[in-house]
Amino acid sequence: MLRTAILVSCFALFGAGAQANPWPQRPVTLIVPYPAGGGVDTAARIYSAAISRILGRQVVVENRAGASGAIGAQAVVRAAPDGYTFLLSSPAEVLVTPIAGKPLPYDPEKDLTPIAFVGDTPLGIVAHPERGPKSLGELVASSQKQGVKFNYGTPGSGSTMHFAGAAMQAIAGVNWQHVPYKGAAPAVNDVLGGQIDFVITGLPPLVAHIKTGKLTLLAVTSANRSPLFADVPAISELPSMAGYQFTNWLGLFGPAQLPPGIGRKMSAAFESAVQDEAVRQRLQEAGWRAVVLEQDAFVQFLAQERSRYQTVRDKAGMIIE
């Protein structure tokens, strides 16, 4: 009886302590595996301000760029699973890179805990307003009927944008020359200078160039038109491209063995953030769609994406350098 009483007292004591010190007790780090000023970083900073208010603790954005996102992701893999280090990921470092056959110093499926899908953006197909194709229809029709071989740039071989371009070619039955760059910025610079015919990349780094008329947005790769450029068609509107869809999305991940309760609380904070009209507006202006899928739906989405990317790789016969 005495032993039982002592155990009950201990459980009560520790339970009270746990309730008295709910997570988080200190600032939370949100690692962005890309440079400051990019699309993922912009979304992270919009979210971090809102999540800080919701949690009552500062959420600090830390940029750990390099190796197509792998350096930042590995920092989260190595972090303690205590709820103070998270990854805001693009598809590259958690899904696309291994499908492209490139080695990673971690296993995304075993070493990271998926928490929530927290937004997406269509890819944009942009061309020089005077030197490039004038419309998506012209681009595809010229390639199909006249045998014109366009070249296009992406942020890298094996990137989401490379897969998007390969899928377009496979569906439309055309042959374009892929020119991989080390990031979106040099690809955009070359299409601005007329060195390449068009670029496929995320919408956020293109917004300013499109609005100032320096680049022509031929189409977006989402299922529907972008609210930011409602007069620009989605690729799937072209009869020969029906069903086509590719987006660059944002995923929230923690280290392996993250306590489920912390993951749920972080997911709920993001859900609360996207209910704020000001947050949604800022994300939309930056090219992002504010939408959150909780853990179970996100895990299912990841499985579907892996299957889809593998199918594109195999059917398109992609050559990934």
Explain what the structure shows.
It comes from Achromobacter insuavis. This is Tripartite tricarboxylate transporter substrate binding protein. Belongs to the UPF0065 (bug) family. InterPro entries: BUG, Bug_dom1. Keywords: Signal. This protein has 321 residues and is an alpha/beta fold. It has 2 domains: 164 residues, D-Maltodextrin-Binding Protein, domain 2; 120 residues, D-Maltodextrin-Binding Protein, domain 2. Helix content is 43%, strand content 18%. It contains 12 helices and 9 strands. Strands 1, 2, 3, 4, 5, 6, 7, 8 and 9 form a 9-stranded mixed β-sheet that branches. Helix 2 links the parallel strand 1 and strand 2. The longest helix has 22 residues. The radius of gyration is 22 Å and the shape is globular. The N terminus is likely disordered.
> How many distinct helices?
12
Question: Which secondary-structure class do the elements indicate?
Answer: alpha/beta
Question: What is the overall silhouette?
Answer: globular
User: Stretches where pLDDT falls below 50 for ≥5 residues?
Assistant: 1-19
Roughly how many Å apart are the termini?
70 Å
Largest sheet: 9 strands, mixed
Order of helices and strands: HEHEHEHHEHEHEHEHEEHHH
| Rg computed from alpha carbons, rounded to a whole number of angstroms | 22 Å
Fraction of residues in H or I helices? 40-55%
CATH first level of the largest domain: Alpha Beta
The fraction of residues assigned to DSSP E strands is 15-25%
Number of domains: 2
CATH superfamily of the largest domain: Bordetella uptake gene, domain 1
Q: Report the count of strand segments.
A: 9
CATH architecture of the largest domain: 3-Layer(aba) Sandwich
Fold-level CATH name of the largest domain: D-Maltodextrin-Binding Protein, domain 2
Mean pLDDT: 90
Signal peptide: 1-20
Family: Belongs to the UPF0065 (bug) family.
Organism: Achromobacter insuavis
Protein name: Tripartite tricarboxylate transporter substrate binding protein
